[in-house]
Amino acid sequence: MKLKILISTILNAPMTRLDSNQPNLPDQASPRPAQENPWVEGIKTIALSAVLAFGIRTFVAEARYIPSGSMLPTLQINDRLIVDKVGYHFRRPERGDIVVFAPTEKLKEQNYKDAFIKRVIALPGEKVEVKNGKVFINDQPIQENYVEDRPAYQYGPVIVPDNQYLVLGDNRNNSYDSHYWGFVPREKIIGRAVVRFWPPNRVGSIQPEPSYNK
Fold first, then answer.
1. Has residue 87 been placed in a domain?
2. Which residues contact 76 (CB under 8 A, 6 or more apart)?
3. Which of 3, 79, 162, 196 could make an SS bond with 66 (beta carbons 3.0 to 4.6 A apart)?
4. Same domain, yes or no: 97 and 44
């Protein structure tokens, strides 16, 4: 129920008008309120709805859609997701998180303006290498149960800088990600994709959960 309310608000659902919270005193007549122009009342309701939706979208959560196949098979083209923008104020991004982030400086140099969505693979200070179709973190292969295909490229070894993250698409051989353009600074991360609300037959948490997080 809470999820449905949040999604409705994010998608600019109409607001429910609230009554005054001032109680009537016993044995005291309540003066009849003046009739408000319905147009004025409607404008107030729309304005309040817009302000609330903007506040939630800016600070709490927002809806995003998937425009490409770089995250196949986990995310399909045109999937709609809710992105949590609050959680990372209380914890750091973890390996396996699917994150939305603003273009890095290198991406801006290439005229990218829209946000990206990828999976966090390596954390600050970790050594990462891609070889023989596997990802190695600190010289140990990680088990990935979510990729479309094993990576057909070599990368690294490199050490992830402080306060930055290496991100890769689940569609490893068809994803423009960190192995091309580098790391994502923490301040560029907008939030974490937490639930899919469209299409109806795929509504729910984003699966599969990474095997190394179980």
1. yes
2. 66, 69, 202
3. 79
4. no
- Domain count across the chain: 2
- Does residue 92 sit in the same domain as residue 188? yes
**pTM score:** 0.74
Residue 102: inside a domain: yes
Which is more confidently placed, 43 or 22?
43
Q: Are residues 106 and 174 in the same domain?
A: yes
Nearest CA-CA partner of 119 in 64, 67, 71, 181: 71
Domain of 118, in residue numbers: 62-213
The mean predicted confidence, pLDDT, of the chain is 81
- DSSP letters of 145-213? SS-SS---S-EEEEEPPTTEEEEE-SSGGG--SHHHH--EEGGGEEEEEEEEEESGGG-EE-SSPPGGG
> pLDDT tens digit string along 164-211?
999 999 999 999 999 999 999 999 999 999 999 999 999 999 988 898
Q: Alpha-carbon distance 108 to 10, whole Å? A: 28
Mind telling me the catalytic residues?
A: 70, 118
Token representation of residue 187: 């301040």
Percent of the chain exceeding pLDDT 90 equals 65
Summarize pLDDT for 115-128 with one digit per residue, the tens. 999 999 999 999 99
